[in-house]
Specification:
2 copies of one chain form a homodimer. By secondary structure, chain A is mainly α. The first copy, chain A, has helices at 3-28, 31-38, 42-48, 52-74, 76-85, 90-108, 110-136, 146-165, 173-184. Chains A and B meet through helix 6, helix 8 and helix 9 of A and helix 6, helix 8 and helix 9 of B.
Chain lengths: 188, 188
């Protein structure tokens, strides 16, 4: 296969695996279910990824990289607004499922937790960097350290992930995100 | 057995089961592990609770009732401060584990979700009621509906649960909760 075909195949596996992990959880995503969701044989899947654990990590890393990029460009509040806007789409369901599986494995699997620490820190660092630039631009409140504002936004993000994943009514979440954003901005 | 002994036995089972569900998750908490954690035989456990599902529901309902009581008395911000203060205690680990198991089953088990809806609504109602009283007392900001402020606090609570459960560094969480509280109060 050409490199292009290999890359396309890899993306196909990741997309199917994301859906599968979101729907069945890490433990529940059997090799048979992974075959069904990706439309590929186990041979083809594990030609690209050593085992289920490597596949899950690749899905989660993909999501973390996309998040670092959006945070650096538009900020964590925008990531939250995008999540909310797409709350009922299959992509968002996959994203939320992966995030919750990551958080569950962080809690129950110390080896995973230590491997994941660098990714979590990359997202936190992107959030802090963007806030620092906003402070220089004079739009951020300046009576609270950037590290505290960054963790406040991450707390709101984690809360949003959990609420959307639980299917809680989302009626007020738009105005709630306005409150979150106003809490880190300079009052005019 | 006397009613007192029966009640004490029931509490003993709930305490052990809470630890067990927190440590191993709902699926991972086998009957054998439940026997180990409670120090009782399966016969004794299932004399009090019909099955594992009823036992889990009883643990979660206990936690929800405690939360409604604290929210009504001290508010959701105080619940968060208590959680943070006891972040490393075994009781808090049990609480966080139960909360996350509830949120996982809400996502993956529609029958559980419909049975749980009334409990979630009781906590939300206690939060709204307390905020309404605070608004009457003039300490709450009055430019945002109580329903929005309530969901903002619930978002922060869910975020805190997820962050503590993931073992994220808690250094800034005290000042973060100050920000959360300030965001719902009237600015002096």
């Amino acid at each position: 296969m050409s490199q292009d075909r290999l890359d396309a195949r890899r993306r196909q596996i990741l997309a199917g695996a994301r859906t599968c992990f979101a729907r069945h959880g890490y433990e529940g995503a059997t090799v048979r279910l992974l075959e069904q969701e990706t439309g590929l044989s186990r041979g083809a899947i594990f030609h690209h990824f050593r085992d289920k654990d490597s596949l899950f990590l690749a899905v989660a890393e993909d999501d973390a990289a996309a998040m670092v990029e959006t945070v650096a460009r538009d900020g964590l509040v925008q990531v939250m607004r995008d999540l909310l806007a797409g709350a009922t789409s299959p992509e968002t369901a996959g994203w939320l499922g992966t995030q919750l599986e990551v958080s569950r494995r962080l809690r129950t699997d110390p080896a995973f937790a230590s491997r994941w620490a660098a990714r979590a820190e990359a997202i936190a660092a992107a959030t802090r960097d963007r806030l620092a630039r906003q402070r220089e631009a004079g739009v951020l409140r300046d009576d609270v350290p950037v590290a505290v504002l960054a963790q406040f936004l991450e707390l709101a993000y984690d809360g949003l992930v959990l609420q959307l994943a639980m299917g809680r009514p989302a009626d007020h979440l738009g105005p709630v995100l306005d409150l979150v954003e106003a809490a880190v901005r300079k009052t005019p």
